[in-house]
Structure to design on (852 residues):
């Protein structure tokens, strides 16, 4: 990398590029001297790289803004081009709805104002344009209130840029910035509170430490007002331009051109709840809320930090996570060295966990956050002022705090926490003070805390091996009860000493011999149809075949896949319909009852090879043998999630294929048309001259052109046939998806209807908890006769809470695929007097449909 690029990239950091100095002023002066000379040689390279640094390292924006301000003193034309590029990029971001670029570029323009590069009045115009668009959007008559997410985002962008330039705006254009703030207050008075129960981390909607019921925009407005009343003074934003103020004042201001905001779609003509909900969902997907605060720790852990400073540090952390997602070690290093003078390890932990648990989905996979937290724990033991070895303890404290609230945590968030925690422990030798949680053994099997510990231990076994995990809990050896059984398959036909050898044993041994002889699936099926099926019937036949083939493939994943690939046709021929496929899945579950991972993988592979349908998996999940375990284990929910994921991945792959083939068809059409045109041009030269035909091209070229026309025509026809085939497959898949969704929601509705209390007794999930607590708030300690407080709700109530929680989670997760089938679902599942209100409430909250 060139020296000037390294200086730009590493400005403000401790490192060899700037010697021993860590002073921002020294860094800016050094970088300015080099960049000033480099512009003369390769100005076209400097400008885009400087903008790229500012956009992708936004916590350094004040440094880059000051650097550009100094360059403006000597090379106005270069800086004018930078301002024009920023403005053009900002307009492109507005047109495309690129939320991150809009937010960062507006912050960058505000920082350029501080460096006397941008005219304050022109930035105010940008603010007012965004504010006007927001106010129009939420206006009932002129706009489309369903798209309030877009309006809120514009207002958030304005407010979030003020920490970087509010003081300068208040000093240079006090009346104008006051007008903007009054406009924001007016906007807040006409918008609706956007708190959504379907996206909250906790069942109650707020964590116990939450200070208010305000949504994110209202909260940010309060923080901004506090900042303004404090004279726009804050600690978290560096102000390096003040060191060069005497010089920067001589710079020439550059004007910003007017901008144009994207208009939201027109409101639906039919103002039904479903249409409003669909538009609200689309708006939230286009303009998602960046963070939902997770108040894990007591307020005194961050009480020395101003409210606005907390917001700025959150912005820093989320920006680093976003722009350095491909460089985890660099990401951890930047997160540990933010340009703030106070400690923020508790705030960083809350921000990271808020992203892991974010609903409807986090920006990145859980694995990314796992690696970043792991690197932060390691870097904290080596470096810096921000994290003096404290971060591992802070992470442990966050886990303990979340564990205490686990019964109120959203089911999807709980599953993510289990996956993260088990993976995190695997990177630290599975060390954890399990004795702190050994009391969960005294809780009922359905208690959320007990289930959490059980699921974490089971996931750890998957990541290691049984004996290793047993060793890791030796300080709480009683927890061995929650470990899964050793992962031996439950093979019915093993030839153990003293075990009676039945006819089924002989059939299994014969089938095993045929596999070893590598007989074909067709020959094996013929033998089964002639020898086993007529004598023993379907159930015995299925048991023998499944038990034997799975036993052959039980040594590893590879063995199992090989067996399914080679003899999958046997399963397919035996179980052609959903009823028999449900029986097949029950046999697979029985064989691998001691290994949840192999059960899930086997079923997933069977669906991948189309040996079982997604509907069969749904029916198996909701079969009586599994329903009673819904609140005691995540296994069936994992299998259901895998089936839904595979279904929608197929649809996604088909859509991508259709898109690619459509592009190729256009290319083939053009190639075919060009070939025909070239042939026609050549043939046109075979014309009459004075009544005599004249050969215009030689025969060899004519033959080649005709061959090209034939080949391009054939290629076009082939692509069109391929496109038609893919479209037919997509239509079929969409039709199957509609049937799958109908079955899924009908199954949820049926099992919930059996167990939920009467609607009059339970109008919300909180009613389920309070009803059980009131009925038995105290129990008697059987050992000493003293009363003890009952801490867990009953079996049935917990089953209802868990099942409704998973219903909400699946609905929210697959909302994009559910909406196209909403009319059918509403007609056949969601309407009718016998539909329980809690069932509808869970679905409506997940889909953002207004309850009223």
């Amino acid at each position: 990398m060139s020296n000037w690029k390294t200086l730009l990239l590493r400005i403000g950091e401790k490192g060899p590029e700037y010697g021993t100095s860590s002073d921002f002023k020294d860094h800016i002066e050094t970088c300015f001297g080099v960049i000033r000379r480099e512009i003369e040689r390769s100005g076209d390279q400097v400008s885009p790289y400087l903008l790229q640094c500012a956009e992708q390292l936004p916590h350094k924006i004040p440094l880059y803004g000051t650097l550009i301000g100094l360059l403006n003193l000597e090379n106005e034309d270069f800086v004018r081009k930078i301002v024009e590029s920023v403005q053009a990029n900002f307009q492109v971001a507005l047109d495309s709805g690129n939320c991150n670029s809009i937010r960062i570029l507006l912050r960058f323009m505000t920082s350029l104002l501080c460096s006397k590069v941008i005219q304050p009045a022109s930035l105010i115009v940008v603010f007012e344009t965004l504010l006007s668009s927001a106010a129009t959007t939420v206006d009932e008559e002129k706009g489309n209130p369903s798209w309030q997410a877009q309006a809120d985002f514009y207002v958030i962008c304005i407010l979030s840029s003020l920490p970087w330039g509010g003081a300068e705006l208040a000093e240079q254009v006090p009346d104008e910035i006051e007008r903007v703030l009054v406009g924001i207050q007016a906007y807040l008075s006409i918008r609706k509170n956007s708190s959504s129960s379907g996206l909250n981390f906790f069942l109650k909607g707020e964590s116990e430490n939450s200070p208010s019921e305000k949504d994110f925009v209202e909260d940010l407005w309060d923080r901004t007002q506090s900042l303004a009343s404090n004279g726009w003074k804050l600690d978290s934003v560096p102000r390096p331009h003040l060191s060069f103020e005497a010089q920067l004042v001589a710079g020439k201001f550059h004007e910003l051109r007017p901008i144009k905001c994207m208009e939201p779609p027109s409101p639906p003509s039919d103002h039904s709840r479903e249409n409003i909900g669909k538009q609200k969902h689309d708006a939230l997907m286009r303009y998602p809320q960046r963070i939902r605060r997770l108040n894990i720790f007591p307020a005194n852990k961050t009480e020395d930090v101003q409210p606005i400073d907390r917001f700025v540090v959150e912005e820093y952390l989320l920006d680093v996570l976003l722009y350095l997602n491909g460089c985890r070690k660099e990401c951890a290093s930047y997160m540990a060295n933010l340009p703030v003078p106070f400690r923020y390890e508790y705030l960083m932990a809350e921000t990271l966990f808020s992203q892991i648990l974010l609903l409807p989905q986090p920006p990145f996979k859980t694995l990314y956050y796992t690696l970043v937290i792991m690197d932060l724990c390691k870097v904290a033991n080596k470096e810096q002022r921000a994290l003096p070895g404290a971060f591992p303890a802070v992470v442990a404290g966050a886990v303990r705090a979340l564990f205490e609230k686990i019964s109120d945590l959203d089911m999807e968030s709980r599953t993510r926490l289990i996956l993260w925690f088990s993976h995190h422990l695997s990177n630290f030798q599975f060390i954890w003070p399990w004795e702190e949680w050994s009391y969960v053994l005294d809780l009922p099997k359905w208690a959320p805390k007990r289930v959490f510990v059980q699921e974490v231990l089971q996931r750890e076994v998957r990541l290691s091996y049984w004996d290793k995990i047993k060793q890791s809990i030796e300080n709480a050896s009683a927890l061995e009860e929650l470990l899964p059984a050793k992962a031996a398959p439950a093979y019915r036909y093993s030839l153990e000493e003293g075990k009676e050898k039945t006819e089924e044993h002989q059939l299994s041994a014969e089938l095993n011999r045929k596999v070893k002889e590598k007989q074909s699936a067709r020959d094996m099926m013929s033998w089964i149809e002639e020898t086993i099926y007529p004598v023993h019937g379907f159930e015995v036949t299925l048991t023998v075949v499944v038990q034997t083939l799975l036993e052959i493939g039980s040594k590893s994943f590879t063995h199992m896949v090989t067996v399914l690939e080679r003899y999958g046709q046997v399963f397919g021929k035996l179980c052609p319909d959903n009823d028999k496929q449900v029986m097949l899945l029950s046999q697979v579950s029985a064989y691998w009852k001691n290994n949840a991972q192999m059960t899930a993988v086997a079923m997933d592979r069977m669906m991948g090879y189309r040996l079982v349908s997604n509907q069969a998996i749904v029916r198996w999940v909701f079969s009586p043998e599994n329903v009673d375990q819904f609140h005691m284990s995540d296994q069936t929910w994992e299998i259901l999630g895998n089936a839904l994921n595979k279904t929608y991945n197929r649809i996604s792959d088909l859509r991508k294929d259709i898109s690619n083939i459509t592009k190729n068809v256009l290319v083939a059409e053009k190639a075919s048309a060009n070939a025909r045109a070239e042939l026609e041009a050549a043939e046109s030269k075979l014309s009459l001259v004075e009544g005599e035909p004249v050969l215009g091209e030689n025969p060899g070229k004519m033959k080649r052109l005709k061959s090209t026309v034939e080949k391009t025509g054939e290629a076009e026809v082939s692509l069109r046939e391929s496109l038609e085939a893919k479209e037919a497959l997509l239509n079929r898949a969409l039709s199957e998806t509609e049937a799958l969704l109908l079955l899924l929601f009908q199954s949820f509705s049926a099992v919930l209807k059996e167990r939920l209390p009467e609607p009059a007794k339970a109008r919300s999930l909180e009613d389920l908890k309070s009803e059980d607590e009131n009925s038995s708030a105290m129990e008697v300690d059987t050992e000493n006769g003293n009363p003890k407080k009952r801490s867990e709700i009953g079996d049935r109530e917990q089953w209802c809470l868990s099942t409704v929680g998973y219903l909400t989670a699946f609905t929210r997760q697959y909302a994009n695929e559910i909406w196209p089938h909403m009319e059918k679902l509403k007609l056949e599942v969601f309407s009718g007097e016998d539909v329980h209100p809690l069932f509808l409430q869970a679905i409506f909250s997940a889909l953002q449909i207004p309850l009223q």
